[in-house]
Amino acid sequence: QVQLVESGGGLVQAGGSLRLSCVVSGGTFSGYAMGWFRQAPGKEREFVAAISRSGISTTLADSVKGRFTISRDNAKSTMYLQMNSLKPEDTAVYYCAADAHYSGAYSYTQSRVDYWGQGTQVTVST
Predict the structure, then answer these.
(1) Which of 29, 68, 82, 124 is disulfide-compatible with 64, CB 3.0–4.6 A?
(2) How many CB atoms lie within 10 A of CB 122?
């Protein structure tokens, strides 16, 4: 059974940084295109970032470009989201996602996701 476990969330002041991690077990991590989504209170879940199986290709939502970086370490079965210059509007539950069928990072929609993590809360204060 494939499991995705996020960590690294917390409370941070605006302008600060956090690094989220997602560890995958029970499956072949290098065989998944990975992504991050987030859901703020009262809003729908939205795409944040994605990375291809190899890690060569990445995509970022316009709202986080220049501030967030997605990466992965296939040897550690772990994906990361480095979040810098955080803003209050980044406050949300962040979810790790895995796509076992397509290798690329583009058009990484929720319909592609085969496995979800349980989420980790990120709160950015003013």
Answers:
(1) 68
(2) 22
What lies within 8 Å, CB to CB, of 7 at 6+ separation is 20, 21, 22, 23, 120
The strand pairing partners of 74, in sequence order, are none
Residue pLDDT tens, the chain, 126 long: 999 999 999 999 999 999 999 999 999 999 999 999 999 999 999 999 999 999 999 999 999 999 999 999 999 999 999 999 999 999 999 999 999 999 899 899 999 999 999 999 999 999
Helix (H) or strand (E) holding 116, with range, is strand 115-116
What amino acid is encoded at 118 in this protein?
Answer: Q
User: Whose CA is closest to 21, among 76, 66, 65, 60?
Assistant: 76
